[in-house]
Amino acid sequence: MTEHTDATTDDADDGSHPVDAPGRHGSRAALYAAAAGAFCYPEPERVAALTADDAIESLRTAAATVDCAAAGDALADALSDPALDDETLADGYDALFGLPGDEGEYPVVPYEANYTVRDDIGARQRRIATVSGLLEQFDLARADSFHERRDHVAVELELLQVLAARRALAAEEGDRERAEQLALAEATVLDRHLADFIPALAHELGGAVEREAGPDPAADVYVAAADLATALVERDRAAHPEPPEPETGGEPA
Description:
Distance between the termini: 20 Å
Keywords: Chaperone
Low-confidence stretches: 1-19, 248-253
Protein name: Molecular chaperone TorD family protein
Strand content: under 5%
Pfam family, one: Nitrate_red_del
Order of helices and strands: HHHHHHHHHH
Organism: Halorubrum rutilum
Number of helices: 10
Number of strands: 0
CATH superfamily: TorD-like
InterPro entries: DMSO/NO3_reduct_chaperone (IPR020945), TorD-like_sf (IPR036411), TorD/DmsD_chaperones (IPR050289)
């Protein structure tokens, strides 16, 4: 999982919009963090953090702040289910993401390249490399305990979390140039990585929970997390400037 320390808010979404309150970008960061956390393997400490009363209340507040109240409430309700614990959530994770079926395929693949470049192995490797490049650009690295590919849904959502948090800080400090740079970085990640990936993942997940035998409380969490991520990505993509054109001769970042 990506390691980071800073948290931030929002500036101008493009050159013509006024600077937003830092709290709006901080709310976006909190929501991306919640969605990313839900897609990490449910270790007991992580589940305890996700299901804490103050975390759930903060989730509702943040979602209302960025006009994603319905999606935020759905995830908060799922995380508040008394039947949900780390073992139940782990059973659901294994049923959906962790164990291949009879034909050797996973019910839901949580990796971007499998959705955006499909079966082209070379293109898939280049796509993963572009995500790695983005992580390096912003001084991020997977934690030693996180063993998934760099294009895992949790990594890419956490990248958006970090960018939103840094925008919050830039807005708070009045650093318009930095905020605009971060807005363009977000636009690149949204447009070239998450805009197609997250809705497709949500669609696959919705179908898989109907077929697989995982516990319902866990399925509710994963579906709600995917729906919240989709709502955030669609909202943010519509509000952001056009991303810069990719350099010729390689896989777009």
